[in-house]
Amino acid sequence: MALDKDTLSQFLDALDRFVKERLIPYEDRVADEDVIPPMLVDEIRMMGLFGMSIPEDFGGLGLSMIEEVQAAFVLGQASPAFRSLVGTNNGIGSQGIIIDGTDEQKAQYLPALASGDMIASFALTEPDAGSDAGSLRTTARRDGNDFLLNGTKRYITNAPRADLFTVFARTNPEAEGSAGVSAFLVEAGTPGITLGQPDRKMGQKGSHTCDVILDNVRVPAANIIGGPDRLNKGFKTAMKVLDRGRLHISAVCVGAAERLIRDSLSYAMERKQFGEPIAEKQLIQAMLADSRAEAFAARCMIEETARRKDAGQNVSTDAACCKMFASEMVGRVADRAVQIHGGAGYMAEYAVERFYRDVRLFRIYEGTTQIQQILIARNMIRTAAA
Amino acid sequence: MKVLVPVKRVIDYNVKVRVKADGSGVDLANVKMSMNPFDEIAVEEAIRLKEADKADEVVVVSIGVKQAQETLRTALAMGADRAILVVAANDVHQDIEPLAVAKILKAIVDEEQPGLVLAGKQAIDNDMNATGQMLSALLGWSQGTFASELDIDGDKAVVTREVDGGLQTIKVNLPAVVTVDLRLNEPRYASLPNIMKAKKKPLDEKTAAGYGVDSSPRLEVVKTTEPATRAAGIIVGSVDELVSKLKEAGAV
Fold first, then answer.
1. Which domains occur in chain A, in start order?
2. What is the DSSP letter of A367?
């Protein structure tokens, strides 16, 4: 349901205030201790941030795509670790159920995901299957009314605290590529699941990923997303989920870019060299202007694409354009932010050093830039050939 | 017991205030506005009284321009039950003076019959610190100002007041007007789900004229000026030099 203008602006104001007063002041501590303090997790839960994209009927906020990206512009201003905490429940962890799930699955899981009482994780990637998701090796072998899952999932975001996994596994060993893959809802307590050590990442400290090892994990056929009828159709679910996520991630990139620009501008206006603030220097001004224009371009692309998605249009190609452009853009903006800060930008005292490492991931996960390029170009060729 | 909380829409405390070129006041055009922080504390306290079963309804009221309904929506999202908007001005630059506000509030109190009026001690825009006191005089009710602690004890309110050099605890008869200070509590955030729910809570719209109160200004603002900018400092080479400079300036 679309919010009226007043409610939306009140919503975004409240979020902005929460980000500035509660999240940003904790960034350094979260990065140092590699953990979000539990009381802050509770506050994030109370604010309703876990359920932004989950329908109102299931206790979420039911934001439209344009509303969700506007919220992500704001949330993206704080360390990506916070966004990552709520990211799976709002995105890849819940969208499969929302898009393709049965009524029972929705009723069973969405309210707890919306409140944040349950954390969801999306287990697609494997040691030998990243962008090439069609080469999945995890298997699901039928055993009566159940399936037995075996395999290893890698770099699974929020796995260490997850209560529910969406696991992609091959249900038809005869089928090639992405055919013959099904999506299973697997609760974390199910016997046979073990977690690896948390991965040692370049950035985004406070957000955790790890391996998920499945050893004869028994899951009823009813736990296939969409029920037994959607056997072997899991890859289609995965693609739909990733499509929506691209716009969300793009918007987070814009939020991070705007934060980096704000930090750079305030530093440049204070830092004096050769008798004046460096912001007066034209070479610094060029960097500020380039960053501002690029962030603005990304913001416009995303808003336009989100509105068209809400209007029911197919935005697959443009969502991929947004993800590619926005994630590459924030990489350039972060690089300039460090450059504007000079030596200080290389030091952990300034947030730009941390953001420089944090934003590197945006060009990689939920589809690398190169995968987006292929997707965009293939769609172009397909449309032209039709 | 019903608690009535007046809330004022003021310039956001994070905004850098700019004086209008003609010196008639502060420029409020396209400036972010929020609930007066002291009023936010009053709303929080009222909600806590309700959560502790010491109050059964929290009614918020705002007197000013129509846009003050955004402020009321925030109070509703925090947990107030219903809201009353009294439109008393069309121009965002017109401040409704404390006596006019107190008279309107008295009319609302007569209608609503609350057991307690909880107000901010002052608004951060004009720092009058008068409305609560005037209201208690108009009503003939007890008052407790600058509350840093509040407890309801039967038909009495126990108010700890922040006074010069310490704290004073008083017990006043209910109904009463209590104005709150900064350290009373830390207001909660209006959560996103509650913002959505607040849309469905009742918000009545009234006018100052409807209460028979003339809200036009009685005071004339002669001049408004920015605070003086701080003069640049100097760097001294040694403690001796510092001491001699301070002596020159007559500071030691």
1. 3-113 (1.10.540.10), 119-231 (2.40.110.10), 234-383 (1.20.140.10)
2. S
